[in-house]
Amino acid sequence: VGKSSVLTCPHKPDVSQVIWKINPSVGGPCTMGYRADQKTNTTNCSDSVNWKSKPDEDPALEIRHVELVHEGNYTCEVAAKEGNFHETYHLTVLASPTLTLYRDDHGNLLCKAVAGKPAAQISWVPESNSTSREEGHNNGTVTVLSKFTACSTNMTDATCKVSHPAGNQSQSIAC
């Protein structure tokens, strides 16, 4: 989420037509087309989806500021003198969770990985008998809450470690 992504398409000489067919997981389809005799045409595409450069020079598609709504299938079809070519992608968007670590009213330590996609994995240092629960959101993200209940008098602090494909994070708190 938030980065740019470029999807390449077969680049051939003497291209007569390029079509990107975009079917997002959420929302309606979008089409971007180029014909040598009519130039470009775009139907139902957001402003963040566009040609990387001139489609006759490079038919790649660029998605600026990727969001969860961009997830889905992207197919490029190229017609050239050499024949017809296509490339299909399934774009999966990762959302890095926001980490918060705090103490509840009973003195338990709570680690929360908010709105990650996919769900984050939470572990504790030192290892403990922690409990976790997940809450799914309508946009496909998941919040994971883990409770650490093993603080003892000989411990100075505990560390919550969040593992996620978009990047790992950790925070420590005094016991």
TrEMBL record:
One of its GO terms (molecular function) is signaling receptor activity. Coiled coil: none annotated. It comes from Brachypteracias leptosomus (short-legged ground-roller). It is found in: Membrane. Belongs to the CD200R family. It holds the Pfam family C2-set_2. The lineage of its organism: Eukaryota, Metazoa, Chordata, Craniata, Vertebrata. This is MOR1B protein. The keyword Calcium does not apply. PANTHER family: CELL SURFACE GLYCOPROTEIN CD200 RECEPTOR 2 (PTHR21462:SF2), CELL SURFACE GLYCOPROTEIN OX2 RECEPTOR PRECURSOR (PTHR21462). It is a single-pass membrane protein. Residues 1-92, 109-174 form the Ig-like domain. It comes from the Eukaryota. InterPro entries: CD200R (IPR040012), CD80_C2-set (IPR013162), Ig-like_dom (IPR007110), Ig-like_dom_sf (IPR036179), Ig-like_fold (IPR013783), Ig_V-set (IPR013106). Keywords: Disulfide bond, Glycoprotein, Membrane, Receptor, Transmembrane, Transmembrane helix.
